[in-house]
Amino acid sequence: MLMPNPYSLFHDRPTNFLNSVRFYAVPVKFQVKPKKEEDDGPRLNDQVKAKYVRLVGDDGHSVVSRFEALERAKTLKLDLVEVDKNANPPVCKIMDYHKEMYKKKESDKERAKSKSEMTMRKETKEVRISEKTESKDLKMKSDHIIKLMEKGYRVKAKATGKADQSMFDAISRLSALIPCRK
């Protein structure tokens, strides 16, 4: 059924516009960006694309064809690794790539481990003692202090009690149990 539109300039004709049209919400389609060449490390062996490469070794460097460089690597049972692909011609080196990566990973782990051991944590731990603390409890607290200091925490010993002399005695007994390290 056609309904006359009261807002139309032409009142005598009914309008078909919008009576037979349905509107739908359509999701936006995302365009997939083309992937660039993934740079997940240097190119190895047959992945090297240049016709000529600068081959760097212990005896110096020379510009050779890619096929000759691959043959040299195969005779030595090593990999041809592209060190600098932006150079003209690209710089390549003959080496055992996986062995070098293993050594690098191990040295990185060792460096991270030593760095974490060397850095002090910003948090401070507090150990409380009183003049009534017995020697076996002081020994346990000193062991706890040593463990915290090895983890990199700063440790504050707090003595509670009434007399100054008894506090000094408790702190001196505790400090005698903790070895000095430089």
Automatic annotation (TrEMBL):
**Which GO molecular function, any one, fits this protein according to its record?**
translation initiation factor activity
GO biological process entries: ribosome disassembly
Domain Translation initiation factor 3 N-terminal per the UniProt entry, residue ranges: 45-110
Coiled-coil segments:
none
Record's keyword terms, sorted: Initiation factor, Protein biosynthesis
**What range does the record give for the signal peptide?**
none
- Which family, according to UniProt? Belongs to the IF-3 family.
Give me the ranges of the annotated region Disordered.
105-136
UniProt name for this protein: Translation initiation factor 3 N-terminal domain-containing protein
- Pfam families in the record: IF3_N
Q: Does the keyword Secreted apply?
A: no
In terms of PANTHER family, this protein maps to: TRANSLATION INITIATION FACTOR IF-3, TRANSLATION INITIATION FACTOR IF3-1, MITOCHONDRIAL
> InterPro entries under this entry?
T_IF-3_C_sf, T_IF-3_N_sf, Translation_initiation_fac_3, Translation_initiation_fac_3_N
